[in-house]
Design goal:
Blueprint lengths: L6 E2 L3 E7 L2 E9 L3 H14 L5 E8 L7 E5 L9 H10 L5 E8 L6 H17 L4 E2 L4 E8 L4 H10 L3 E7 L3 E8 L3 H11 L2 E4 L2
Helix pairs in contact: 2-3
Length: 201
């Protein structure tokens, strides 16, 4: 389903170093817990000798996420997953997973140092990943005369409408999608043109 809030436009990986510890951060767009599990398992496969593979995600609209979780993977409680999740929430992005892989460099960072390092790793990848916003759209079936096709196309061009399919018989049958926010405008256009239409609800 399309979404009217920012989601990551794709996968990105960035590496930072803090006191000889390597932090490899990955960001993914995700829509389900199964996807999260797959990406976390892949990180364990890609870095089998890493000391920690920590992560956090949220699915749904930022600020009212349907689901969120985090994992410290052996780091002291609250020093890895929580700072990663805090950065995700601060970035106002939905449907996002951040994994941070740590290779210990021999120098202990302490709880405060770990929080800063994991937050910094998450920040490094989230500040660079592209964002995409897909507006929620609704579809309408429209039956119209041949002379009405051009005005319909013209309206769509100026109002972010898409003609998904069109069939010709003795009438023209068009399947149109419009942003949900413009559904009322589209209905008013159809009424003004005396077009037979049915908006999905």
């Amino acid at each position: 389903m399309s979404k009217d809030y920012p989601v990551p436009s794709g996968y990105l990986e960035r590496e930072t170093e803090v006191k000889k510890s390597r932090f490899i951060a990955r960001v993914y767009p995700v829509c389900s817990r199964d996807e999260v599990r797959e990406h976390v398992a892949r990180a364990h496969q890609d870095y089998p000798d890493a000391r920690h593979v920590c992560w956090a995600y949220q699915i749904g609209r930022p600020g009212s996420a349907a689901e969120a979780a985090m994992n410290d993977d052996g780091e002291p409680s609250g020093t890895a997953g929580k700072p990663i999740l805090n950065v995700i929430q601060h970035k106002d992005m939905g449907d996002v997973l951040v994994i941070v892989v740590r290779y210990f460099g021999g120098i202990k960072l302490g709880a405060g140092g770990l929080v800063r390092a994991y937050a910094g790793a998450a920040e490094s990848v989230l500040s660079e990943v592209g964002r995409t916003i897909q507006q929620i759209r609704v579809q309408a079936e429209v039956v119209l005369g041949f002379a009405d096709e051009q005005p319909l196309r013209h309206w769509c061009e100026g109002h972010e409408g898409h003609i998904e399919s069109i069939q010709y018989s003795n009438r023209v049958n068009a399947l149109v999608s419009v942003p949900e926010a413009r559904a009322t405008e589209f209905a008013a256009f159809c009424d003004a043109q005396k077009l037979d239409y049915r908006l999905e609800t």
